[in-house]
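[job 0412] stage=fold_complex status=start
inputs:
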Amino acid sequence: MHIVQMRGIVKRFGDLIANDHVDFELESGEIHALLGENGAGKTTLMRILYGLYHADEGNILVNDQPVAIHTPKDAIAAGIGMVTQHFTLVPTLTVAENLALGEKGSLTLDIKQVERSVAEASKRFGIPVKPDVLVRHLSVGERQRVEILKALYRNAQVLILDEPTAVLVPQEVDVLFEALKRLQYSGLSVIFISHKLHEVMDLCNRITVLRDGKAVGTVHKNDTSTKQLATMMVGRESFGVTRQEQRVQGEVLVTIKNMCAEDKKGLPALRNINLEVHAGEILGIAGVSGNGQAELSAILCGMQKPSSGQIMVEGQDLTGAEADVICATGIGRIPEDRHANLVGELSVAENLVLDHLQDYVKNGILERNKIQQQAGKLIKDFQIKAKPRDRLRTLSGGNMQKVMLARTLSREPRVVIVSQPTRGLDVGATDYVRSQLLEQRKRGAAVLMISEDLDEIIALSDRIAVIYEGEIVGIIPNSEATPEKLGLMMSGSNIEKRKQEKKRVQV
Amino acid sequence: MSTPAVIFIVGFLAATLRVATPLIYGTLGELFCERAGILNLGIEGTMFLGAFVGFAVGYHSGSLWLGVAIAAVAGMVSGLLMSLLAVRFGVNQHVAGLGITMLWTGVSLFSFRLIFGESKVQPSVDPFPQISLFGDTPIIGTIFTQYLLTYIGILLVPLVWWIINRTRFGLQIRAVGENPEAADAAGLNVYAIRTYALMIGGALMAVGGAFLSLASVGAFTFGIVAGRGWVCIALIIFANWRAISVLWGALIFGGVQALQLRLQTLGLKLPYELFLSLPYLVTILALSIAGRNAAAPSALLKPYRRE
Amino acid sequence: MSKFRIERAPAPMWVRPLIPFIAIPVTFLLTSALVLAAGANPLEAYYHFLISPLSNSYSAIEVLVKSTPLLLTGAAVAFAFNAGYWNIGAEGQLYAGAIMATFIGITLNNVSPFVGIPAMIVGGFVAGMLWALVPALLKVKLNIDEVVTTLLLNSVVLFVTSFLLNGAWRDPISMWPQSPEIDPGTVFIKLIPRTRLHLGFLLALVVIVIEWFVLTRTSFGLKMRAIGYSREGARFAGIKVNRTMLTVALVSGGIAGLAGAGEVAGIHFHLIDALSDGLGYSGIVIATLGGLNPFGVGLAALFVGLIDTGAQSVSRALGVPVYLGDVVQSTLLLVTLSLFLLNNYRIRKVEA
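[job 0412] stage=fold_complex status=done
writing structure:
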């Protein structure tokens, strides 16, 4: 029996088609993976099912009955719950208050009574939470548990999980999977959004693959392999961009010594980072999301200050330097969030020169012709689909990233800091960006690349440093790197082992 | 203690309560708006509108309470307008709020001229009587001879605290003010909740204004609100967005003004403008020390829009 | 067959400048309810509002007189808003400029206009900057919301004015709360004899042109616009956000201060309590109507000046209360604000 059917779903964002006549069916009591690359349209499809987006075309059936889902309220009423990537909890409220939020009921709120029933539900579903704690005091993993319990507490028959493992360490992933299998056994149907093949093969019964907004196909786990899934996801056997063999390393251009930093909440995010990047190499930083990569990137881009340690770039001490100082040194920076780090309302041409305006100014007055010429040139060189006068915000993600690349790389920086270079890009743009990064390496630049995409790390990096809970747990040359070995390091297993050994020695 | 001193202090305390009353209403009204995530700079104009509507209705119907009631309705309309602009359309809240203040100021003055003409004699009503809670008991009796609206205003403080912290609606207000995405995902109608909050807030602001025309003054003058709305904006920050602290803040700010009035009547030559400036300066100082975002609702000033 | 569909996507560039022109008829439609309530014919009322002030040269010049401070407060607000600095304090900065100008005007004695007039201009500008300084520093150093601080200081400056007028500067002869007259050498010269149009108008036009040039042609202007659109994006691109914003805030205050100096030196010749009565707030209306573009601001200021003058002629001719002007002005603001949302939509032809 199908508990959910989505038929011919179309969703457009301006010129972009995020979902192109997608059909999707969920059987009762199964765990069904929605697999695809970033930007394939998985989240969009599920946000439509949960009433956060409105489909331009198509319809939805729940238990074979057509339903109109305009808001999450409708979805909840239809027995659908969703845990989105950005958690939708109110940090200043307690766990119990968060769970009571959508509830109808008496005018007054007997919070003690809610706490009791939350505790009861927590026991019944086997998801441990403390009802009376403020959500802002919880860890990410705990918050995810609250999110799942919230959906179940509202009698969800269908649970949508959007990339739930991205924020979890491997042990937590195991616990989550166990809980999900238990819930499946008791009758829950689960939609599991992911781009990680092994997870999908681990957990799910059936897998629907999305690519470029279209459903490529649905397969049963027993009838497929990770290799087949990968082919379905990317539409070809392997990436078109490969690194040439090892080159002789040049001098050290970037030295990071004993660097520590805190996150926005003031908790330690980076612990004693020591790294060196040589001319003519790409140093890849691999790791599960949320292990300090954001802070590392922000510090190297001058957007955050480290709490201790030292950063030397080409013999210059840049510890704690502001963005304008970093910018003046000519270090190339390609950050993770291009929307926040470009200016959407300015034109493409203005964005292309904004970080080195001094070259386009005479006596404080803009040399507008020179700016337009430069823009025309870069648009051609970097194959940006835009005109110089277009507002930047009208560009697609891939073209925005090309603007960022063009602005940064046209200055031929000796040092390049780049974070999640291809996140959310289509295959063509991905290949282009990767080849440009390899181009920098060939030119003799020192490239520090942070990426959560293991394939990307392995394809591009000469050396790979693995970050786990803010620590570099190991640096290995590409020749020794396999996905399995890196996966083990990323899960912190060797550091956990070391800790246990230390304990044993102390005992 | 000598008798004149006692009389002075008693009079001062009684005046403090009177001066604080419109501030309590206005600030509680603003509290609803801001806890739901909307900075309503329409407060000054909404209080002015309340003062005018309350007076006009009271004058023509002969029922002051009807005036208060209709003023509250006018305040709700004002909240609805703010909701249309800031919640539905999601326009800049600063500019929308100031625009509403200018609109209601203009509309009130226009209507006042239309209804009452340009007569030389200021139209007036017999204001609300003051009610003595403790009869002729010395000191306490004098202090607690106040307008019913003052007593209601003071009782509103714990009531508002209770609504915000102990009811489902209050929980919803806090949720949409802190994280509207979360509230939406929980199945709440963010627009509706913010609209209700703005309407309740508008009603309270307008009653604060009506208190000025129907109780304090007994007439509608062009300078009747005179920046009290802005004082309320300051008070919210001073009270750290907490209902109970609003009362203390209003009493302190009211006290400063009452003291200045008292001292003036004693014939003391004081730069009373300094006293009047104090609430503003103290707020700016408090802001500088506490820093912004001390307890401000996280979604304040951020319009919510679903894709 | 093709159908049309409305979707959420940036509208074409030419939509934005059209919006104020759509807003004007909508506003008049909305406000005609009040005209009808006053027992007048809306068409007749709007004739007096918009046409009759321009029908003779005296009142047409009066429109320019009314526009003079509005050009400056509008320019002041637009300048700050362009950099994302929400200066609500033009009203206060205007008074600060007026107080300083009055001080200079009553302190100097028998001064040459070549000294007196520049002194008034510089004094007004500097005082406006000073009054804008504290909120700007709090914003830059402690990240304290400038809206609240600039707004609160508007009230404070009124008390300062009242303190001066009831104390040190009270007119010694009439005992009215108004300052003594300023020295004739500090009075702004008339642009047209026997009218009230003074040097301030020219000054305002110059300010508008300079502001346009700075915003669109200089690297400072590009930097401040980048900050206004995206503070993080600007910071990432190496722009010194705090320093730029501080400069913008002070210049904005200075321009508003000029408006105050102009009112004292060109119109009133002494300081009075009701010198402004909302000119600073009107600056916010004008900046918004003008789409934060200096030339748009210029047109908007002239239009609001026309409304202000027109309101008086409606009042005289038809007995409609003069406050209709305030209602029209604020309605226009709210309608324009709402209509700017059209920017976020476009109509697309879809083949069915």
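[job 0412] summary: The first strand of chain A starts at residue 2 and ends at 13.
[job 0412] exit 0
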